[in-house]
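Per-residue structure
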Amino acid sequence: MEEHKELNKNHWNLQYIAQTVAHTVNERISTELNRVRLGTNNTDRNTQILIELLQGFMQLRNVEHIPTIDLYKPEFLIHAENTVKERIAHQKQRKHSRQ
């Protein structure tokens, strides 16, 4: 009987610890996942806006065919990519300095 009581007590303690750890992990992951979800939604919205603007511009200019960047990568695109990379690096530095 004593052995059974001890096993039940240990089992309850393990369940309590497991539930506590699961709850803590869930809270932290939920917060991070929420941030990722909000960022993804914002990126998706901006991408859809850019696609609509580009499509409207191309229709206005009667553009039928375009050279893809694997054939020709213009200087303005290289400049835009570098600007975005620098902006992201700067934001990472600000984030790390806040932490």
Summary: The CA atoms of residues 78 and 84 lie 10 Å apart. The helical segments are 2-60, 75-98.
